[in-house]
């Protein structure tokens, strides 16, 4: 819950529409044309193509300061196990709110040899994250299904941009399978919670 609250509180209150038009959409299109142009992974290509068509819906989200690597190594806890700090902000960017929400996947699963394994805590952690995130949204956004649906799309877009970060566009077939599995998990876990 604390991670969800923290990420929601990074909203800046400004529109993200320009960032979606000038960075998010071009980046997704670049990934489609350069990273998936010769690859046989049609399922992933199809999912990213769907995200390109859904990306304009994220313009309703406020712009947010996005920590692009929310993981256990970057979270400092106090003596009561509350989050005291989130460190390692050098790759931070300004993107639609929730773009880094996909990180809950890494925090709620065990990763061995680059494969995610769900545990008995995965689903409760995801639900707690979502509750903390939604409860910390500005009141005018909190109860809007279109906003919550856009957050799920932003989470998926953030995952794709993370997986295909500049300089790492050539993913192996196994990495593409993993990316697709993570996209599926985000969809199956959070889209029902959004009320969409």
TrEMBL record:
Residues 1-17 form the signal peptide. It comes from the Eukaryota. Keywords: Signal. This is Uncharacterized protein. It comes from Dichomitus squalens.
């Amino acid at each position: 819950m604390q991670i969800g609250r923290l990420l929601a509180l990074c909203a800046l209150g400004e529109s993200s529409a320009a960032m979606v038009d000038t960075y998010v959409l071009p980046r997704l299109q670049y990934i489609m044309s350069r990273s998936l142009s010769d690859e046989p992974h049609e399922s992933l290509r199809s999912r990213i193509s769907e995200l390109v068509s859904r990306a304009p819906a994220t313009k309703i989200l406020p712009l947010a300061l996005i920590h692009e690597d929310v993981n256990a190594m970057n979270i400092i806890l106090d003596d009561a196990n509350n989050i005291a700090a989130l460190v390692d902000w050098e790759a931070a960017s300004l993107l639609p709110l929730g773009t880094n929400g996909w990180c809950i996947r890494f925090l709620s699963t065990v990763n061995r040899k680059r494969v995610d394994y769900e545990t008995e805590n995965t689903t409760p952690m995801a639900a707690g994250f979502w509750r903390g995130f939604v409860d910390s949204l500005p009141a005018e956004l909190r109860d809007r299904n279109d906003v919550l649906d856009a957050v799920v799309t932003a989470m998926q877009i953030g995952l794709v941009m993370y997986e295909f970060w500049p300089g790492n566009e050539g993913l192996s077939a196994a990495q593409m399978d993993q990316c697709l599995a993570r996209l599926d998990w985000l969809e199956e876990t959070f889209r029902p919670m959004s009320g969409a």
